[in-house]
Design a protein that fits this description.
This protein has five helices and six strands; from the N terminus they run E-E-E-E-H-H-E-H-H-E-H. With about 170 residues, the protein is of the alpha/beta class.
Length: about 170
């Protein structure tokens, strides 16, 4: 059995999916509820996930500490675990990520595109080798907004997430 609930973030609804003990999914809009799933906001780790997302979007949390179960091929899991190592407010290229796991950029891009836990496994921090923003399941506007937000927090301390890049004054 799996469980889901929707977290209303500053960048749109995020569907959280749990196996009852671990987070197995965090997806942008257009939720697709897994077969045999039940909506229940109190199932572990939804309360903790929502709390940490609130802190992230308030600019006070840089590293998530949640039980996550990654369901994918060995290669996908290696690529996704490498995402956890990208420091808050920084970016790396697909090429750099590929080199770290002994692969090719295109394969890493494919794996990142299948990332089951957006934001928490920060694939938004992976950019093209030429510095361009490319490929993001939540759309490039969200990727740009997340990167701008993290850079601002890193430079100036906690900030409210405005969902725009740059934020209006």
């Amino acid at each position: 059995m799996s469980y889901y609930c929707v977290y209303h973030s500053p960048i749109g609804p995020l569907e959280m999916v749990s196996d009852g003990t671990s987070l197995v999914g965090l997806h942008f809009s257009n939720p697709i509820h897994p077969a045999n799933s039940v909506e229940n906001a109190t199932v572990s780790p939804f309360p903790e996930t929502a709390e940490q997302l609130e802190e992230y979007f308030a600019g006070t949390l840089e590293e998530f500490d949640l039980p996550i179960a990654l369901n994918g091929s060995d290669f996908q899991v290696r690529a996704w675990n490498e995402l956890r190592k990208i420091p808050y407010g920084e970016t790396i290229s697909y090429k750099m990520q590929a080199e770290k796991i002994g692969s090719k950029p295109r394969a890493v891009g494919w794996a990142n595109g299948q990332n089951p836990v957006c934001i928490i496994l920060p694939c938004h921090r992976v950019i093209g080798a030429d510095g361009r923003l490319v490929g993001y399941g939540g759309g490039l506007n969200r990727k740009r907004a997340l990167l701008h937000f993290e850079a601002t927090v890193r430079d100036f301390g906690p900030q409210p997430f405005c969902g725009h890049a740059p934020c209006p004054t």
